[in-house]
Design goal:
Shape: elongated
Number of helices: 10
CATH class of the largest domain: Alpha Beta
Number of domains: 3
Number of strands: 25
Largest sheet: 8 strands, parallel, barrel
Radius of gyration: 24 Å
Oligomer: single chain
CATH architecture of the largest domain: Alpha-Beta Barrel
CATH topology of the largest domain: TIM Barrel
CATH superfamily of the largest domain: Glycosidases
Helix content: 10-25%
């Protein structure tokens, strides 16, 4: 994983306009992001999707088309052309920002032709139960890539390269169809009995030709783009040993056997299932802290009835902070999306304080929070996030002590270190009534004065000779206290 003070931004949201301008926008934003302390940027899938310029990137059509070929009615993707993508990566790296590429290898969509295949229909809610005998269906599983031809690869996909699909062109029926001679992989999440199948044409990682092609593509992509790491999509739907082996092949040939920074999306609130995946992958892949997201979401909708002292219970950042990437919201949790669980606006300052100002985990700021989501009437929170990011960059150092003792008012301190002049902070938050906590900020801050840099509490706090101070916050609010004379505007 990355270093303790690293900070990430997910640089896209679901409802971005289909104007093919994102690569140029992030290119121009590089200096600004670097100044904020962002040193990892997660970019959306760069390859051609089934929906052309309207595809967010998860309906993968052609992994080799990064906005270079006339396919699906367009040359550029939703975000731009291949040249713009590569240039954006180059400029970000010149600004000391590492780039994570979003890798989607679970499925393909938008096939060029149908094929007649024998398949059984499985129960949507228990994929271990078949509802029919083998029956011929017409499946969209043939990918010929006429617009690209054999450039970069002459591999053509057909039904033998997939486990199954969710559509029969014969009957026009949506279901889960498992192809003849195939079985769902075992080392996947056990939701729905077996959660190998997610969407589209489900890629069969047991097929040697498929495995070899995906390794070949991974090497091509990593070498061409010069990205620094990967965000791995839908890992709980792919057999657990696939990505470690895939990464090992790329590292062996292109990275001098050095680990490539990766973070996987294992969408589950079950910390035991998440820990099981970590065990099966030998801790080689970091994961997004989905349980923490849901704890923050529940707190935001509980009208002050959530127990804030338990905000970190059952989370990855508590159990395996070395492998946790923390986040507040993302493109899947947005309003209107399948996993909608949007942390309400009033609790966003609390949530971002909890991921940006603490020592555990690598925090990820969401584009939709920073720049807003006009499609859904969500205003940007860049002023708040600018302050918190600068507090993280200049003051969030040193020993941490938690004061998670009350149901509705909690706090923590970072005592600072000698390498960062004036560093150290205190955070107090409430989801109900106003409150205060006596906290020890460290003897290095003895006889000093602190103020709330968010401006929610106007009074100052005087720290005694032992480093103790009484830090407060207003009702349903958060206050971030730093030393008087230090500024984050």
């Amino acid at each position: 994983m990355a270093n303790n003070n690293d900070c990430m931004m997910q640089y896209f949201e679901w409802y971005l306009p289909s104007d093919s301008k994102l690569w140029n926008k992030v290119r121009d934003d590089g200096t600004h992001l670097s100044n904020l302390g962002i040193n990892y940027v997660w970019l959306p899938p760069a390859y051609k999707g089934a929906g052309g310029t309207n595809d967010v990137g998860y309906g993968v059509y052609d992994l080799y088309d990064l906005g270079e070929f006339n396919q699906k009615g367009t040359i550029p993707t939703k975000y731009g052309t291949k040249e713009e993508y590569l240039n954006a990566i180059k400029v970000l790296k010149e600004n000391n920002i590492k780039v994570l590429a979003d890798i989607v290898l679970n499925h393909k969509m938008g096939a060029d032709e149908v094929e007649e295949v024998l398949a059984v229909q499985d129960d949507e809610n228990n994929r271990n139960v078949s509802l029919s005998n083998l029956t011929p269906i017409k499946a969209w599983t043939k990918y010929t890539f006429a617009g690209r031809g054999n450039v970069y690869s002459d591999f053509k996909w057909d039904w033998t390269h997939f486990h199954g699909i969710d559509w029969d062109e014969n009957t026009k029926k949506v279901s889960v169809y498992k192809f003849y001679g195939k079985k769902w992989d075992e080392e996947v999440d056990k939701e729905k009995g077996n959660f190998d199948y997610l969407m589209g044409a489900d890629i069969d990682m047991n097929n040697n030709d498929v495995s070899n092609e995906l390794i070949k593509w991974g090497k091509w992509y990593y070498d061409l783009t010069k990205v620094d790491g990967f965000r791995l999509d839908a890992v709980k739907h792919i057999r657990a040993d696939f990505f470690p082996k895939w990464l090992e092949e790329i590292e062996k040939e292109l990275n001098d056997n050095n680990p490539i920074f990766t973070v996987g999306e294992y969408w589950s609130i079950n910390i035991d299932a998440i820990k099981n995946y970590i065990e099966k992958t030998d801790g080689k892949i970091g994961l997004f802290d989905v349980p923490l997201h849901y704890n923050m979401y529940k707190a935001s909708i509980s009208n002050g009835e959530y127990n804030l002292s338990e905000i970190f219970e059952g989370t990855l950042v508590k159990e395996r902070p070395d492998l946790a990437v923390t986040f507040v919201d993302n493109h899947d949790t947005q309003i209107g999306q399948a996993l909608e669980s949007w942390v309400l606006d009033w609790f966003k300052p609390h949530s971002y304080s909890l991921i940006l100002l603490r020592q555990e985990g690598i925090p990820c700021v969401f584009y939709g929070d920073y720049y807003g989501v006009p499609e859904k009437g969500i205003n940007p929170k860049n002023e708040l996030l600018d302050k918190l990011l600068k507090v993280r960059k200049y003051f969030a150092y040193g020993e941490q002590e938690d004061y998670l003792l009350s149901t509705n008012v909690i706090g923590f301190v970072r005592r600072g270190d000698y390498e960062h002049s004036g560093s150290g902070l205190a955070v107090v938050m409430s989801d109900k009534e106003a409150g205060s906590i006596k906290m020890n900020i460290g003897k290095n801050h003895a006889n000093s004065v602190f103020y709330d840099c968010l401006g929610n509490v106007k009074d100052k706090v005087y720290v005694d000779q032992n480093g103790n101070g009484i830090f407060s916050c207003k009702e349903g609010s958060v206050s971030v206290w730093i030393r008087d004379g230090q500024y984050v505007n």
